[in-house]
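Input (structure):
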């Protein structure tokens, strides 16, 4: 039972990881401290796609399922088992990857724009009173 729960937990965390990879940059617009985590997650996504290295979450899920007496994941891995052919047809894998890359790029560009805007608002201008209404003098 414990092994099966471990496998299920790894699967859920893996799905959440993929969602964060796709939209975590947008979350950083609201919570700027998330950008470092999103950069790391996106870097892992690039490394895993380019090199084909197996994700530790896939290994954990497979290990839990096999020790629970289940079949485990096929050798093709998590994405092939749960995503490709289920959420989108296999022949659109490149399109899906480009779509995620586009989302990440847009979120990072938006984040940079927000950071610059915040810096401009908080930077001292050296011009006291510029942009503020003139003082009211009594008559």
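Output (sequence):
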């Amino acid at each position: 039972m414990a092994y099966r729960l471990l496998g299920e937990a790894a699967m859920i965390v893996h799905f959440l990881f993929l969602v964060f990879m796709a939209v975590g940059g947008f979350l950083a617009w609201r919570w700027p401290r998330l950008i470092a985590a999103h950069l790391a997650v996106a870097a892992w996504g690039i490394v895993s796609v380019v090199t084909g290295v197996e994700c530790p979450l896939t290994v954990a899920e497979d290990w839990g399922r096999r020790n629970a007496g289940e079949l485990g994941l096929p050798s093709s891995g998590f994405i092939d088992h749960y995503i490709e052919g289920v959420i989108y047809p296999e022949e659109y894998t490149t399109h899906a990857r480009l779509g995620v890359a586009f989302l990440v790029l847009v979120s990072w560009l938006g984040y940079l724009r927000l950071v610059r805007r915040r810096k401009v608002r908080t930077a001292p201008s050296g011009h006291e009173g510029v942009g503020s209404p003139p003082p009211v003098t009594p008559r």
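Notes: Residues 2-120 form one domain. The helical segments are 2-30, 34-51, 56-67, 78-83, 93-122.
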